[in-house]
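User: Can you recover a sequence for this backbone? Please restate the input before giving your answer.

Assistant: Of course. Working from this structure:
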């Protein structure tokens, strides 16, 4: 495993996606935003004051993301960090508009989808150049070693100011990988530039989710896609799910 990731709980890899691929993903996001505009689905996903487009399941919206979640250059890093078998857990977009783009208070991702072996990590794919002015990510190096922390409120925040994390400015095409125990967050977008990221979350398929009353905490449509190796848990894992259509939401 990569020594820096093991020690610090994160890794910034430059140039994973080239300019053409970045543009394809920007166009994919624009298509998704166009389809929801003015519909009941167009909700603000900000945790605190501000604006954020945070739609999940990107690969169900647009095929460009099916290709990108399994991109060979991305997968090469994932197998180094997770192991030979890598499974997609979920995907989402994070579009922070200019002037008012919402911050993310510091948190661990652990309480959103707890697992037993802590293999989960985020690959935050930058589609714009980011810096402190347009709300880049901050991480607290080594904080993954603290294990799961007491989290507060619905947003599961931890008692760390943004300044306790080091800023991770990045260029379009760079990917910041961080473990789901690594404390992270991001500031307000105070600039006149949009900050577009897509975030793919992966795990080792042998890493069992922690169940609450027999139920997995976070289930997304797109979860379970293998992007490297095989899934030794497939037959044990699949029958746990039963799909019940509660409500059909139309635009
Ligand atoms: O990309 C960001 O600004 C933060 C995203 C984040 O912390 C999350 O989705 O858990």
């Amino acid at each position: 495993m990569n020594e820096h990731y093991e020690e610090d709980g994160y890794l910034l890899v430059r140039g994973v996606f080239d300019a053409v691929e970045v543009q394809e993903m920007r166009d994919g996001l624009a298509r998704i935003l166009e389809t929801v505009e003015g519909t009941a689905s167009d909700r603000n996903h900000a945790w605190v004051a501000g604006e954020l487009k945070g739609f999940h399941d990107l690969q169900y919206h647009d095929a460009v993301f099916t290709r990108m979640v399994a991109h060979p250059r991305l997968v090469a890093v994932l197998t180094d960090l997770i192991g030979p078998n890598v499974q997609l857990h979920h995907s989402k977009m994070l579009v922070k508009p200019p002037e008012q783009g919402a911050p993310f208070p510091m948190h661990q991702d652990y309480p959103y989808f707890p697992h037993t072996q802590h293999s989960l990590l985020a690959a935050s794919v930058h589609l714009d150049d980011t810096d402190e002015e347009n709300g880049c990510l901050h991480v607290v190096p080594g904080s993954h070693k603290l294990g799961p922390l007491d989290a507060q409120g619905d947003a599961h925040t931890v008692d760390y100011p943004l300044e306790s994390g080091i800023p991770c400015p990045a260029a379009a095409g760079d990917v910041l990988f961080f473990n789901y125990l690594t404390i992270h967050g991001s500031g307000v977008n105070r600039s006149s530039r949009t900050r577009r990221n897509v975030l793919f979350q992966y795990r080792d398929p042998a890493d069992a989710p922690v169940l609450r009353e027999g139920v997995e905490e976070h289930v997304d449509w797109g979860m379970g896609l293998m992007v490297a190796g095989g899934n030794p848990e497939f037959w044990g894992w699949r029958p746990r799910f039963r799909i019940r259509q509660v409500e059909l939401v139309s635009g």
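That completes the design. The pocket of 2-oxoglutaric acid is lined by residues 94, 104, 109, 124, 137, 184-186, 197, 199 (CB under 6 Å).
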